[in-house]
Structure to design on (342 residues):
């Protein structure tokens, strides 16, 4: 029996998990830090202190839930980047210390790779496939050739999509994180009420995203509005979310065309990261691409946002590939998707 213990602390979720190498989850606890709500965004120093405090409570709880002891764990791992350096140092130092004290291997895991791998838990996905990563820090389109072999086809040149949801929510006076708040309001509003810009539309080959112009347009609409009532917020949230859906559909179409032109055939499209929890986005993408015979795959809802399960899943792949464990790697806040942790 090979068991993996994983920690995720790259942003404001403190999460631990224990998985069997068959991917079965024995125990898992994810704590979303509420300390940041009053600041309208994540405060790194507060996040680090909270990670330390919360890990001390949830690690023993997770072992209890899983019904195993530290001596039963064969491999320890933690997110090594990208993310906020304070959180990365805390998660990796704790997991490494556990590994060293038990004389077991330790792996640093790339957070982006964790997100990319997350839908393989509940879906059959065939290589090569298209993966759209939509988080608070990244918006990227990948061609996934195999585990640890990703080609970036396009990415945001400014704000990440999750960040844009959060900023628009803040402009509308909604609480952090903004994505779920916008989704709730948008379901009640008129998506045609406000015309918003559609960035990077002219060049049909452009696979990049830009969201800062939409955010500025929304800020101007909010400033010019005399009465900011619930109806105004519903309609603006709906118009924003609808524009996001239009952009995603268009960029996925363009990516599929690009692959076709290069004789690369993909059947599966995965949508991952916190924004992939959005039901309106899922429905629109399913309606558009499932009819064209593509198979759309999403992570379980609990694996869309940051969580230690996806970190454990990526670790299982590294272990299967016989990658070398490493106690001496450096946590890297700016780690890229294809950069291995050294
Ligand atoms: O993947 P994630 O938990 O963290 C990062 O790696 O950044 O993504 C967090 C982002 C936040 O910006 C949050 O507002 C967004 O995901 N998000 C959503 C929804 N749930 C979370 N965005 C749109 N709709 C949602 N339902
Ligand atoms: Zn993430």
């Amino acid at each position: 029996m090979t068991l993996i213990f994983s920690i995720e602390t790259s942003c404001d979720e403190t999460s631990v998990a224990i998985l069997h190498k068959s991917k079965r989850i024995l125990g898992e606890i994810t704590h979303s830090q509420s300390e940041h709500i009053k600041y309208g965004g994540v405060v790194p120093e507060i996040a680090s202190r909270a990670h330390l405090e919360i890990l001390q409570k949830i690690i023993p709880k997770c072992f209890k839930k899983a019904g195993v002891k530290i001596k039963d764990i064969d491999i320890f791992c933690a997110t090594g980047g990208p993310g906020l350096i304070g959180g990365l140092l805390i998660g990796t130092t704790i997991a490494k210390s556990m590994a060293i004290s038990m004389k077991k291997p330790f792996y640093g895991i790339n957070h982006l790779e964790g997100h990319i791998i997350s839908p393989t838990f509940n879906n059959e996905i065939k290589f090569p496939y298209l993966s759209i990563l939509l988080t608070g820090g990244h918006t990227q389109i990948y061609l996934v050739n195999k585990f640890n072999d990703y080609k970036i086809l396009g990415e945001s040149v400014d704000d990440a999509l999750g960040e844009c949801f959060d900023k628009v929510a803040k402009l509308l006076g909604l609480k952090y994180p903004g994505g779920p708040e916008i989704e709730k309001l948008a379901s009640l509003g008129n998506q045609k009420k406000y015309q918003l810009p559609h960035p990077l539309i002219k060049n049909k080959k452009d696979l990049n995203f830009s969201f800062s112009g939409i955010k500025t347009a929304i800020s101007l609409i909010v400033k010019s509005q005399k009465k900011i009532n619930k109806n105004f917020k519903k309609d603006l949230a709906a118009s924003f979310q609808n524009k996001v859906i239009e952009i995603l559909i268009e960029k996925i179409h363009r990516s599929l065309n690009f692959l076709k032109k290069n004789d690369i055939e993909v059947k599966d499209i995965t949508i991952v990261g916190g924004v992939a929890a959005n039901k309106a986005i899922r429905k629109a993408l399913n309606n558009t691409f499932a009819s064209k015979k593509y198979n759309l795959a999403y992570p379980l809802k609990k694996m869309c946002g940051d969580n230690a399960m996806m970190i454990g899943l990526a670790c299982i792949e590294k272990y299967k590939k016989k990658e070398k464990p490493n106690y001496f790697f450096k946590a890297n806040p700016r780690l890229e998707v294809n950069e291995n942790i050294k």
Observations:
- The chain is about 40% helix and 20% strand.
